[in-house]
Amino acid sequence: MSLDETARKPHDLLAAHLAVEMEAVNLLIRERMASEHAPRIPQVTAHLVEAGGKRLRPMLTLAAARLCGYGGPFHVHLAATVEFIHTATLLHDDVVDESERRRGRPTANLLWDNKSSVLVGDYLFARSFQLMTETGNMRVMGILANASATIAEGEVLQLTAAQDLATDEGIYLKVVRGKTAALFSAATEVGGVIAGAAEPQVRALHDYGDALGIAFQIVDDLLDYGGTDAVIGKNTGDDFRERKLTLPVIKAVAKADAEERAFWQRVIEKGDQREGDLAHAVALMARHGAMEAARQEALAWAEKARAVLAILPDDPIRDMLRDLAAYVVARIS
Amino acid sequence: MSLDETARKPHDLLAAHLAVEMEAVNLLIRERMASEHAPRIPQVTAHLVEAGGKRLRPMLTLAAARLCGYGGPFHVHLAATVEFIHTATLLHDDVVDESERRRGRPTANLLWDNKSSVLVGDYLFARSFQLMTETGNMRVMGILANASATIAEGEVLQLTAAQDLATDEGIYLKVVRGKTAALFSAATEVGGVIAGAAEPQVRALHDYGDALGIAFQIVDDLLDYGGTDAVIGKNTGDDFRERKLTLPVIKAVAKADAEERAFWQRVIEKGDQREGDLAHAVALMARHGAMEAARQEALAWAEKARAVLAILPDDPIRDMLRDLAAYVVARIS
Question: What is the maximum alpha-carbon separation in chain A?
Fold first, then answer.
């Protein structure tokens, strides 16, 4: 595949630019998800990794390594590692959330069972650690081990913070780093480390992934309430029904008067939701400027992601990474 | 604590001999299971790690390192790593098996929920990888990553092999290595590696852990059917009720005539179990010498464990490890 005019999204441009290496990543993933003895493992894994995910995280690793001039083979291992960690967390998330659909298909826990999802997830975690040890680079192993711990800690925090109106923006940020940003930032950072980039560049790559992940998640939160138009579309309201403390809700709760607080307690803490409650929630968020404030934060994180790339080499990949940050927030701009 | 006459079991002798280092392991475990943000993590972990488990696996790591003359600090990290991996697998096992009791107490999945057990298990896996990276020793990381993959693969294999009469002794051995022996052998092997032991000694330590783990598991299988006396005690029959293909059952099925095979199909594959079936199963195993054959295998593995230690230094720890192998099979000798 070559760069062409039909590929306009930054993600597609990156995929085209890194096509040869992405193919190597896909081959390695397919090779390492095999199990001679337990065919259930590749069945469950293939169901998820071949469901047409965007492979955004491994692509970030490849892009960071290439941008820093890496010429060796191990960015492919690290990209596959990142995708395995991501896939393992998806398998476990779907068990924890009792999800029934992912990427438009039934989840593995529904097609097989929770047991298979838990154990195959564990297998992929272990495989990811095997893959990273093959790089022989102790520092990337520390970064990815730390990211794995942050992910799990964020998930547990989300579990205990959900439905709790005391959840503030500090906790929200920790949850978001666990859910999304920790693996984004590890993905970009290890690309720089394996390439032997200078410390300020490695730090910039980490910060890019972190900011990109946070912007991505805040946009997700906003779209679940209809974006900034406050128009309730067919896919809105999932977070509300699941009583999640997302950023616009946290901001609205912080400014709530007694009556509004009683409303949030009823719908979020008690889970007693009635017809019209979602629209009322959106109206309260609009009244306090919560949607707009969250939107401004997403834009600021995206801008930070773009800005930190300044010290990295002037290269088409850098432009694509910048455009990716802009693209992530384009839907709420 | 010092060695004294009241500590007669090899396990207690080892614990007394390694008391100072075991205390360091316990401190490190308590330090690393903390989570600033998610108190649920230390709660769930403490429930399990402070429930009075024997700490056999970390003790094997300490013993192997000391036996090979190690004077550094990292065997403590490796011992804590091994215990974290073990604890993570227990948390996930109890979810997969829907267990309600472990070590005489309600399981974490019962006290909290499956979600917490899955996510805290993931956290402990990640923490175990952080701990091992601190050793800076790439080889021990590879060994422990491989062991983690073998454990997860064995668990998935057990899931698909359960209730399937086609399960043969080859599959059984793979399941047992995953369930038990892989972590035992990794625990002893990394002790030798961190001590810089010669290759034949490292190999012997691996083989000791492997053989010890397999003997341990076969004994467990036998005791679940009342040991070699074929006396059904109060704790027998759990494996039968759970329709597990353990070694004595596999051996009896292999020699079954048509009528016996129909019995096994009914009770194991279909799960249609009636009064008197357990006693009949034990009688069939006795008729074909299945219990005795499994007993001989356990004794042979224990003997192998004792024998491979010959090339290790003549030291009280070596005697204790030998006695431990004998002790594991003493209940069926």
Answer: 62
